[in-house]
Specification:
Layout: H1 2-29, H2 38-41, E1 54-58, H3 62-78, E2 83-88, H4 91-103, E3 110-114, H5 120-130, E4 134-138, H6 144-152, E5 157-162, H7 166-172, H8 176-183, E6 188-191, H9 194-202, E7 208-210, H10 225-235, E8 240-246, H11 250-262, E9 269-274, H12 280-284, E10 309-311, H13 318-324, E11 327-330, H14 343-347, E12 351-354, H15 362-370, E13 374-376, H16 380-392, H17 394-402, H18 404-407, H19 414-428
Parallel strand pairs: 1-2, 1-4, 2-3, 4-5, 5-6, 6-7, 8-9, 8-11, 9-10, 11-12, 12-13
Helix pairs in contact: 3-4, 3-19, 5-6, 10-13, 11-16
């Protein structure tokens, strides 16, 4: 049954190619793709292949990319003879890597590219050029044509930080033969938790091990010292409430929370950092935002006469704002998105509050809440209550924040172990 599915999927990908070209151009007009690099999405490489052994790593977006950075550093230390091609699928991840790779001294060892869409001819063109000695995918990137092409070429495959939600597991169980076919090509699956490992094993995946979550082993988010010093001087002693990585629908809730809190805490500064910076203008036009200053326009935080709301619609500065905040709400959790990564804030000693929709980071939320480093809330009203309590009791807030770094430091040795496993994967290729 799986060979039939594979044939049908390949045919569907080929037939969809003209429409996918149009989709890519439409996405480029909306800023979702880089027009000058659209060829990469069709398997046309923009750079030459490095000489020697090449490991291909693929991370879908920003979160997966950030979790790979410590692994890349360990690979550079353990196996300097191996070059790395790191592909992603989003503009924001490419922009992040343009900053982070040079800062980590990896610019000469790691090449960034955009992953091709799952069209057989585009995948073949990509593999013909790069000829990877091994490939590893982060979390849950399972593209049938791409995996089949790698298997035909006998490229060893690994799934790292493997994730399979209960919902996805239930869906795959309806077609177990397809799941076994897709997962059977992996030499190893390194799951982020025992629950994920059990789900993969139940679907017939070989070589499954629960090794831990790379997001627990990430380094602290960076912060530009000059930008941090300038903002601290501008803000002064005002308390800062940070709403980090917010999604559509959450900003209106945060605005309501802000206006409720400022009735008692008139000097409060609320900083809104949208998950997608391009939404800054739309957020500034929301009722209650009063055209708040936006960092992307060069504006600094408002003083007390101008109000207490600041929209930080820039990329790669979340580390700056976590260092400014005394408490933070983690976005994507008051709307049915699944939440964003709370460990980045906990690592920097910030008191955390998280909404009910945090299933994408359930293990992290349980660990932080169990350690007393985070609180969960059901809605905006409860969010306002908790934040208000912390503003009234700075000592309790500071005590909670101090628990975060230790709770977020699990699996500190995982990047080194993952790098060693990847090095071994490259060694499988003959």
């Amino acid at each position: 049954m799986f060979p039939l599915f594979r044939v049908l999927w390949a045919a569907a990908g080929t037939l969809a190619a003209p429409g996918l070209r149009l989709m890519l151009w439409a996405r480029a007009r909306r800023g979702k793709e880089i027009a000058a690099r659209l060829g990469e999405r069709r398997g046309i490489a923009a750079l030459p292949r490095p000489a020697g052994k090449l490991l291909w790593l693929h991370a879908a977006s920003v979160g997966e990319t950030v979790s790979l950075l410590p692994v890349l550093c360990e690979l550079a230390r353990q196996a300097p003879e191996i070059s790395v091609l790191l592909t992603t699928g989003t503009v924001t991840s490419a922009e992040l890597l343009a900053v982070r790779l040079p800062a980590l001294g990896l610019a000469g060892r790691v090449t960034h590219g955009f992953v091709p869409l799952d069209v057989p001819a585009w995948v073949a063109r990509f593999l013909d050029h790069w000829r990877p000695d091994a490939a590893a995918f982060v979390e849950s990137e399972l593209w049938p044509n791409l995996l089949a092409a790698c298997t035909r070429r006998r490229i060893p495959l690994m799934l790292i930080n493997a994730r399979l939600s209960a919902r996805s597991f239930a869906r795959w169980r309806r077609w177990p033969w397809i799941a076994r076919g897709l997962l059977g090509g992996f030499a190893s699956i390194r799951a982020r938790s025992a629950e994920d490992a059990a789900r993969f094993a139940a679907l017939g995946a070989p070589g499954v091990r629960a090794v831990g979550d790379l997001k627990f082993a990430a380094a602290e988010l960076p912060a530009d010292p000059a930008a941090l010093a300038a903002l601290r001087a501008a803000i002064g002693p005002r308390p800062v409430f940070l709403a980090a990585s917010t999604h559509p629908g959450e900003e209106a809730i945060i605005l309501a929370v802000h206006h409720r809190l400022t009735a008692r805490h008139r000097d409060l500064l609320t900083i809104l950092v949208p998950r997608h910076p391009a939404r800054g203008g739309a957020i500034a036009s929301l009722p209650g935002a009063a055209m708040a200053p936006r960092r992307s326009t060069g504006a600094g935080p408002p003083d007390l006469r101008e109000g207490g709301l600041y929209i930080a619609d820039t990329l790669g500065e979340l580390g700056v704002f976590y260092r400014l905040a005394s408490l933070a709400f983690i976005g994507g959790s008051l709307v049915p998105h699944g939440g964003q990564n709370p460990l980045e804030a906990a690592r920097l000693g910030v008191a955390l509050v998280i909404g009910p929709y945090h299933q994408n980071f359930a293990e992290a939320v349980v660990a932080l809440a169990g350690a007393g480093a985070a609180r969960t809330v059901r809605d905006g009203d409860e969010l306002a209550t908790v934040v208000g309590q912390w503003l009234d009791d700075p000592e309790a807030r500071a005590a909670m924040a101090a628990l975060g770094p230790a709770a977020a430091a699990r699996f500190a040795d995982l990047p080194a172990a993952t790098a060693a496993a990847l090095r071994g994967l490259v060694g499988r290729r003959r």
